[in-house]
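hiii so um. not sure if this is the right channel but i have a protein structure encoded as tokens and i wanna go backwards to a sequence. like what aa goes where. can anyone help
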């Protein structure tokens, strides 16, 4: 297996089912990864960093030969689309579980691929490589050999076209082309399997329109916009495109679909795509098994497209913060628990939840890996049932230690526009309300803070060497309230409460604290106020707190890791870091310092010391989680210091540059 993480575990699951032994490869950073432990054999790759190991085809082939493997599955990463690697695998005498090298060579060029498909009379949008040939606007600039949405740029007038083309060319390091940009369009793909005997079988269609940075995060099948007649047209066009390109194996033919029902071929992705699980649910077929069958020279067992059974929706749980420009998140995943999962990595025997995850409790999420932690799939008789099931499971999941897009996914699934099937590639851009955290109601935040404070007190009482049976904070003579101060999502908050001699809650309050006036030693004197809901502590343990709020019971699960409490409730989840009452002073940064917002590697540096820059000018880029993140000048000025260069590894908070503002 020439890939890692979730896709490796997915392929291994089917291999075990059909009696095929498995070999994993790993770099030093992944020596304890789940995919390594689940393989029959594992081979360490030299090369140091993940990029210099997993993407080295020669190292992968050597590892396969050392282990005695007779086939290589490339997964769904860059090597799966590399014609040179595919040819090298065949030259080494091993089976290549993927598309033919010749076809992969064609697919490397988007313009060549579109030309061949257009000759076969499949609708395509026109391409322009000369700016003077562009007939109108808006247009989309695309790299000719791009993948994963990298380098895409929308241009809406002629005045910026030439500069935008040049900028995109510099960014991606390849030739680019333009095509008409279709507004309010859907992204529809037709998954296919083709064998070397001429059979091409489409598996319905998948709706992949909800995207961020041109990458999918919600997929479903069937599409709410596709009726049986349109489905037949799309599948017929996909078959024609596959045959025109000489494709063999598992893949997906991707189309743009407008509101009138017109569609255009976009590309053929030559991998077992990350959203194949929804297709497996509604078709009943194990696509990995069929992929292996085709690679061995076998014939597809079905005469045509399988019937669709119910509806399946998948979401990608990613380590990133949607509220901060999708900034990737790293750290230790202290807990990853999804309730009511019926199966993992294989087609489900009946409707339910399926989880394909590359992580477990304790997994370290690093900048070198993809941001996708897991794919959660709900399969139900109807679309509405699938959406409800999926949103409920996400809400009740415990994901601690790393910021994720979980809350955004829940709000998207519950949004009226999604429920009515009104989705397109601009879904997130036009609906800022889905970026709000689930735990946003004032009383819900207050109660979570109270639950955290009560759980912390219970933990301290359990560890007490003397008088452990006395209620926390109890005094013969009532004095100040019990207090705790947390650094919450919106800044510091203080919670205070009083207990009576019977261990009952006598009063409580929560207040926000101005960070500039934060004097922890002096807090705790705020009076108990009357506008808080009537609250009774039913049970207060160190891991679970049950409160009766105005006659309604709520359960709060509290998971403490060091100074951080992760509080999960029916209202949502929140991470609360308890602040020390006597914090150490932090060193002051040099004025004009630009620091790394995340760990990663410096990919490009576009300025030099002493250079004058404009406000908003791109200074450098960081590569993290397979995405490039720009660092712009916050104001006009002169680059005073530049301690990094391309290839420099940086951690969060490290100095990237110093800018003397004008």
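sure thing!! here u go:
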């Amino acid at each position: 297996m020439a890939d890692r993480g979730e896709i490796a575990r997915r392929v291994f699951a089917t291999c075990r089912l059909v009696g095929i032994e498995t070999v994993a490869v790993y770099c030093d950073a992944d020596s304890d990864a789940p995919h390594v432990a689940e393989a029959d054999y594992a081979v360490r790759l030299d090369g140091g960093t993940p990029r210099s190991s997993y993407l080295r085809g020669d190292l992968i082939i050597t590892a396969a030969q050392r282990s005695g493997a007779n086939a290589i599955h490339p997964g769904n990463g860059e090597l799966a689309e590399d014609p040179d690697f595919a040819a090298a695998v065949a030259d080494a005498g091993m089976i290549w579980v993927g598309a033919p090298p010749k076809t992969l060579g064609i697919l490397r060029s988007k313009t060549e691929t579109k030309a061949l498909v257009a000759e076969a009379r499949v609708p395509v949008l026109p391409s322009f490589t000369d700016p003077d040939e562009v007939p109108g606007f808006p247009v989309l600039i695309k790299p000719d050999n791009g993948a994963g949405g990298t380098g895409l740029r929308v241009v809406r007038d002629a005045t910026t076209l030439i500069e935008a083309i040049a900028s995109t060319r510099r960014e991606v390091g390849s030739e680019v082309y333009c095509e008409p940009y279709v507004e309010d369009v859907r992204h529809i793909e037709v998954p296919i399997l083709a064998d070397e005997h001429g059979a091409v079988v489409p598996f319905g269609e998948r709706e992949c329109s909800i995207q961020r940075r041109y990458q999918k995060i919600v997929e479903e099948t069937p599409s709410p916009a596709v009726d049986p007649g349109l489905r037949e047209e799309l599948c017929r066009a996909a078959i024609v495109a596959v045959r025109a390109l000489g494709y063999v194996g598992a893949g997906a033919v991707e189309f743009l679909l407008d509101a009138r029902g017109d569609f255009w071929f976009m590309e053929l992705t030559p991998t077992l795509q990350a959203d194949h699980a929804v297709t497996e649910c509604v078709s009943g077929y194990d696509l990995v098994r069929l992929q292996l069958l085709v690679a061995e020279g076998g014939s597809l067992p079905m005469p045509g497209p399988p019937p669709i059974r119910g509806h399946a929706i998948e979401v990608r749980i990613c380590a990133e913060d949607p509220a901060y420009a999708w900034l990737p998140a790293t750290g230790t995943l202290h807990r990853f628990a999804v309730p009511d999962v019926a199966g993992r990595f294989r087609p489900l025997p009946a409707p339910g939840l399926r989880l394909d995850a590359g992580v477990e409790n304790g997994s370290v999420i690093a900048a070198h890996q993809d941001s996708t932690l897991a794919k959660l799939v709900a399969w139900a008789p109807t679309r509405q049932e699938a959406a409800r099931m999926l949103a409920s499971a996400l809400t009740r999941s415990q994901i601690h230690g790393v910021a994720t897009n979980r809350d955004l996914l829940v709000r998207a699934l519950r949004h009226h526009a999604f429920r009515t099937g009104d989705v397109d590639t601009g879904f997130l851009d036009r609906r800022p309300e889905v970026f709000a955290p689930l735990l946003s109601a004032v009383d819900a935040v207050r109660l979570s803070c109270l639950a955290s404070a009560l759980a912390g007190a219970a933990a301290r009482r359990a560890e007490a060497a003397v008088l452990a049976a006395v209620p926390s904070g109890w005094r013969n003579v009532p004095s100040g309230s019990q207090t705790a101060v947390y650094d919450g999502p919106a800044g510091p908050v203080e919670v205070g409460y009083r207990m009576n001699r019977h261990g009952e809650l006598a009063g409580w309050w929560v207040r926000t604290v101005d960070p500039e006036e934060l004097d922890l030693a002096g807090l705790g004197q705020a009076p108990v106020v009357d506008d808080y809901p009537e609250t009774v502590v039913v049970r207060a343990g160190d891991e679970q707190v049950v409160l009766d709020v105005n006659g309604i019971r709520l359960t709060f699960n509290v998971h403490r890791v060091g100074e951080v409490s992760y509080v999960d409730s029916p209202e949502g989840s929140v991470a609360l870091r308890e602040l020390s009452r006597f914090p150490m002073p932090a060193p002051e940064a040099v004025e004009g310092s630009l620091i790394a917002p995340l760990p990663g590697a410096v990919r490009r540096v576009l300025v030099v010391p002493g250079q004058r820059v404009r406000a908003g000018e791109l200074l450098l880029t960081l590569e993290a989680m397979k995405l490039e993140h720009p660092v712009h000048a916050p104001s006009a000025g002169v680059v005073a210091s530049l301690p990094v260069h391309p290839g420099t590894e940086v951690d969060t908070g490290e100095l990237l540059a110093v800018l003397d503002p004008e």
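oh and The radius of gyration is 27 Å.
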